[in-house]
């Protein structure tokens, strides 16, 4: 794999230290190798892993860190050996971008378990020794093996979280055969992982129960996500009533929590899968052994499972619940994830176009302030704060210098005091200048006080505006929840109508086929009747000729009786008699 450095710069957002604060950052990606694809990034999911490594929680961050491993975008270049992708394809990149490709797990398309270790999408060390940079950037170059096809009818924004949150729950669900309709699934935690487990469970035909310690999640679980049951885990009566009711449990919670109460909810042979990362796991062995239960852990998945999951979501129209925000709010998004507020995603398309033109930065900021009065107030506040800090710093520096000089005077003794007296004597003529300086300082102090009052007023207005925005956000969230519930109902009705339409279509096709068969049978009967009629007419002609040889004209006229139908029947009988008599006469002759 080529490690050649491209001349084109990549624009990203990076953390420079353990504060985790992100800011624009220019760096270079490797050139597109023979097996590589060049992906223009349009969206990238915000994951808790971004918090971990930008803030150095594991003490192994390699700064500057460009986070992001839930990447979705469009292919703009391909290497000469690439046969799975073409320019314009929609693709995704997940939590790793390389592996040895030679061990038993890589050969089984389970590269996440590579014996030599898979290379993380960001903050990882690639095979050429370079530090990987993630999806908070304008583009990425990746080996085609670690790219995944996203159907063009599936939104790129929705595809991004599937590549970490989605596969983290999908992979163990498939591995432990949770795709059995009619079985029961319990989901602990209702964040990014939990809500995807619910969606997959419903798509698999499972009866899904949400296990949560927060009663506020009940409405979201039942109405928005369509879960079959909600159990408040802090309510002992509800937990007892649900004992031995679940075939499977997926635990997505990362905070420390007891396991025994949840293990008691499993049926015999039940499976408990842990995908969260609590600091400690404690439960009674009896809860595991009695009932022959299984306790399993899991992380993400291999390339085979990831592509299968994306195709499944596209076919079943499974979409994560997301919020799309501009990249400029990346720091806020990461903080929200850290505080467990919500799962957030970023839109890069317009932002990186803006960042690649440095001359537009100032104009862009002004337009942003003009667009939003709140941001304009925030700009005024920050500008004023900067002025105050600069003056305060100068004042502190001045005091610091005076302090040093004072200590100097105290240590130098009488000679220094004499020099001070001489300076004062020489400075009598400069008294007016010092007085003017004092007046200027007083004016500056008044200016600072006025500025502080203005800042205080603007701060109050800012907080009031933030409160209004929060109210609007809550109202918008409620409206979004209602809209999503309506969409889900409409999708369900659409699916039901589609099923009925298909049934009616099949019934109509079956009726048409049956009518066609009846028509063909009637045609065959008519043909047989016509053939039989023709045969009878021929026989009648023969018998008439024979009768004319043995009977007179009067007898023949009598046989052509008044009742044509009865005559025909009698004629048929008489023909048999005549035929027999003819045979007798011939024998006599």
UniProtKB/TrEMBL annotation:
Superkingdom field: Eukaryota
Transmembrane segments: 365-385
Database matches in Gene3D superfamilies: Medium-chain alcohol dehydrogenases, catalytic domain, NAD(P)-binding Rossmann-like Domain
Localization per record: Membrane
UniProt keywords, alphabetically: Membrane, Metal-binding, Oxidoreductase, Transmembrane, Transmembrane helix, Zinc
Stored InterPro entries: ADH-like_C, ADH-like_N, ADH_Zn_CS, CAD-like, ER, GroES-like_sf, GTD-bd, NAD(P)-bd_dom_sf
Record-annotated GTD-binding domain positions: 446-544
GO molecular-function term, one example from the UniProt record: zinc ion binding
GO biological process, one term: lignin biosynthetic process
Pfam families xref list: ADH_N, ADH_zinc_N, Zein-binding
GO cellular component, one term: membrane
Entry-linked PANTHER family: ALDEHYDE REDUCTASE
Stated family: Belongs to the zinc-containing alcohol dehydrogenase family.
Name this protein carries in UniProt: GTD-binding domain-containing protein
């Amino acid at each position: 794999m080529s490690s050649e450095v491209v001349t084109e710069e990549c624009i990203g957002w990076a953390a420079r230290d353990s504060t985790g604060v992100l800011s624009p950052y220019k760096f270079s990606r490797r050139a597109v190798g023979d097996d590589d694809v060049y992906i223009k990034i349009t969206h990238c999911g915000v994951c808790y892993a971004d918090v971990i490594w930008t803030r150095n929680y594991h003490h192994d961050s390699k700064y500057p860190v460009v986070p992001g491993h839930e990447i979705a975008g469009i292919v703009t270049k391909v290497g000469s050996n690439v046969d799975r992708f073409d320019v314009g394809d929609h693709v995704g990149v997940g939590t790793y971008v390389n592996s040895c490709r030679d061990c038993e797990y890589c050969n089984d398309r389970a590269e996440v378990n590579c014996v030599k270790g898979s290379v993380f999408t960001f903050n990882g060390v690639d095979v050429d020794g370079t530090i990987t940079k993630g999806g908070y950037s304008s583009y990425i170059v990746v080996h085609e093996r670690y790219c995944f096809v996203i159907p063009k009818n599936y939104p790129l924004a929705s595809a991004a979280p599937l590549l970490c949150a989605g596969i983290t729950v999908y992979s163990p669900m498939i591995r432990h055969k949770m795709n059995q309709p009619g079985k029961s699934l319990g989901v602990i935690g209702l964040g990014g992982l939990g809500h995807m487990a619910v969606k997959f469970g419903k798509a698999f035909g499972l009866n899904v129960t949400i296990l949560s310690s927060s009663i506020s999640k009940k409405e979201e679980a039942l109405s928005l996500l369509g879960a079959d049951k909600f159990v408040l885990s802090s309510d002992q009566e509800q937990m007892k009533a649900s004992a031995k009711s679940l075939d499977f449990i997926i635990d997505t919670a990362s905070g420390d929590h007891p396991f025994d109460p949840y293990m008691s909810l499993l049926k015999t042979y039940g499976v408990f899968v842990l995908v969260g990362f609590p600091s400690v796991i404690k439960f009674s062995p009896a809860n595991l052994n009695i009932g022959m239960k299984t306790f399993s852990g899991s992380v993400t998945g291999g390339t085979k499972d990831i592509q299968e999951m994306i195709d499944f979501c596209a076919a079943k129209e499974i979409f994560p619940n997301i919020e799309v925000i501009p990249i400029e709010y990346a720091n806020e998004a990461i903080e929200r994830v850290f505080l467990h507020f919500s799962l957030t995603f970023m839109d890069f398309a317009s932002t990186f176009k803006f960042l690649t033109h440095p001359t537009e930065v100032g104009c862009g900021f002004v337009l942003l302030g003009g667009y939003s009065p709140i941001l304009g107030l925030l700009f005024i506040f920050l500008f004023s704060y900067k002025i105050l800090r600069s003056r305060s710093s100068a004042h502190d520096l001045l005091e610091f210098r005076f302090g040093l000089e004072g200590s100097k005077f105290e240590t130098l003794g009488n000679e220094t005091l004499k020099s001070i007296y001489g300076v004062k004597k020489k400075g009598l003529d400069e008294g007016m200048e010092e007085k003017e300086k004092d007046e200027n300082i007083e004016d500056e102090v008044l200016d600072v006080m006025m500025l502080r009052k203005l800042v205080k007023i603007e701060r109050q207005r800012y907080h009031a505006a933030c409160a209004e925005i929060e109210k609007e956000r809550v109202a918008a969230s409620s409206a979004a929840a209602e809209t999503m519930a309506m969409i889900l109902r409409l999708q369900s009705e659409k699916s039901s109508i589609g099923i009925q339409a298909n049934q009616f279509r099949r019934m109509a096709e079956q009726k048409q086929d049956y009518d066609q068969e009846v028509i063909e049978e009637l045609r065959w009967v008519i043909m047989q009747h016509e053939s039989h009629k023709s045969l009878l007419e021929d026989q009648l002609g023969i018998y008439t000729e024979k009768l004319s040889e043995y009977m007179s004209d009067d007898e023949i006229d009598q046989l052509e009786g008044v009742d044509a139908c009865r005559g025909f029947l009698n004629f048929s009988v008489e023909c048999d008699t005549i035929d027999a008599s003819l045979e007798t006469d011939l024998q006599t002759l």
